[in-house]
């Protein structure tokens, strides 16, 4: 069990594993291949420059695969935790899906972007909501640029890193869920949380196997997120301290 007191600030980092039980496979779980390509070679600026239609076909497939998917008990537990802790919970996800929002989480930071947003690859028009699938053409912006998925591709800089760094500095509990600990910079967040020189931080991992950065976690709860996460908190204690 994880004890959370009135003065704790909790940083939760989720990865592809938190959505696996909802039927959205992790890249490694899916074999890491799409039409024979490594996912890293499709989700990249190089692929976009070479063959933007192929990139859109990949993301159109992922938009379609999301249809009808429902949050699982892990997403629901994190939404409940937000209700209890308010702004003392910071939820940062590497996932581009919208299952945290569907579960009721209101303040989710999507450091790798959002599957259902697009943006221009040329002008600074802000990202916009976009549910469309593009399988036979690449959409264009009024400025003449091409519209691309609002996704942080391999080799690009994740979003909101400054805000994330501030939260890592002040959290007292750090929890990672369903992330293999090999994709940087997210894999370094646990070290950043521990390094900030404040009072001792408690660090936890939840997932079916130990992550690559296991040594940095005080405790590792082995199991599927949907099964173990809802049981990790003292809900009655939390409702007593809820905001
Ligand atoms: P990953 O594929 O590298 O690792 C997934 C992790 O999830 C593994 O450690 C695995 O043990 C764990 N896992 C599998 N089933 C689980 C379950 N039921 N409960 C808890 N954990 C489980 O994914 P990653 O480390 O998140 O990084 C790969 C990148 O791929 C990320 O940037 C992410 O944005 C992207 N991605 C996103 C989605 C999505 O949005 N749903 C899906 C696939 C990949
Ligand atoms: Zn434009």
Broad CATH class of the largest domain: Alpha Beta
Q: What integer is the average pLDDT? A: 94
Please state the structural category. alpha/beta
How are strands sequenced across the largest beta sheet? 5-4-1-9-10-11
What can you tell me about this protein's structure?
By secondary structure, the protein is of the alpha/beta class. It folds into two domains: 10-24 and 70-112 and 158-240, Rossmann fold (3-Layer(aba) Sandwich), CATH 3.40.50.1220; 30-68 and 116-151, SIR2/SIRT2 'Small Domain'. Helix content is 30%, strand content 19%. It has ten helices and eleven strands. The chain has helices at 17-20, 39-42, 45-50, 52-66, 73-85, 99-103, 161-170, 189-195, 225-228, 235-240, and strands at residues 10-14, 33-34, 37-38, 89-93, 108-110, 113-120, 128-129, 147-151, 173-177, 202-207, 219-222. The protein has a six-stranded parallel sheet with strand order 5-4-1-9-10-11, sandwiched between helices. It has a three-stranded antiparallel sheet with strand order 7-6-8, covered by helices on one side. Strand 6 and strand 7 (128-129) form a beta hairpin. It starts with 9 loop residues before the first strand and ends with a helix. Bound molecules: nicotinamide-adenine-dinucleotide and zinc ion. Nicotinamide-adenine-dinucleotide is lined by residues 15-21, 24, 26-28, 94-97, 112, 178-180, 183, 207-209, 211, 224-225.
Features:
243 residues, alpha/beta, Rossmann fold, SIR2/SIRT2 'Small Domain', 2 domains, six-stranded parallel sheet, three-stranded antiparallel sheet, 10 helices, 11 strands, 30% helix, 19% strand, globular, binds nicotinamide-adenine-dinucleotide, binds zinc ion
């Amino acid at each position: 069990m994880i004890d959370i007191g009135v003065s704790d600030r909790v940083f939760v980092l989720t990865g592809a594993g938190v959505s696996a039980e909802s039927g959205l496979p992790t890249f490694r779980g899916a074999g890491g291949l799409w039409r024979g390509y490594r996912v890293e070679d499709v989700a990249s600026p190089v692929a976009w420059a070479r063959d933007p239609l192929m990139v859109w076909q990949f993301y159109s497939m992922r938009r379609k695969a999301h249809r009808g998917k429902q949050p699982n008990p892990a997403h629901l537990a994190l939404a409940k935790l937000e209700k209890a802790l308010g702004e003392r919970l910071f939820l940062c996800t590497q996932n581009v899906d919208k299952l945290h929002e569907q579960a009721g989480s209101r303040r989710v930071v999507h450091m790798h972007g959002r599957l259902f947003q697009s943006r221009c690859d040329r002008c600074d028009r802000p990202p916009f909501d976009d549910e469309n699938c593009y399988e036979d053409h690449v959409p264009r912006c009024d400025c003449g640029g091409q519209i691309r998925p609002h996704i942080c591709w391999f080799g690009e800089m994740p979003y909101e890193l400054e805000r994330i760094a501030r939260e890592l500095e002040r959290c007292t509990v750090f929890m990672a869920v369903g992330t293999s600990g090999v994709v940087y910079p997210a894999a370094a967040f646990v070290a950043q949380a521990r390094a900030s020189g404040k009072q001792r931080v408690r660090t936890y991992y939840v997932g079916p196997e130990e992550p690559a950065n296991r040594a940095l976690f005080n405790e590792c709860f082995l199991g599927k997120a949907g099964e173990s996460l809802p049981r990790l908190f003292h809900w009655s204690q939390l409702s007593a301290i809820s905001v």
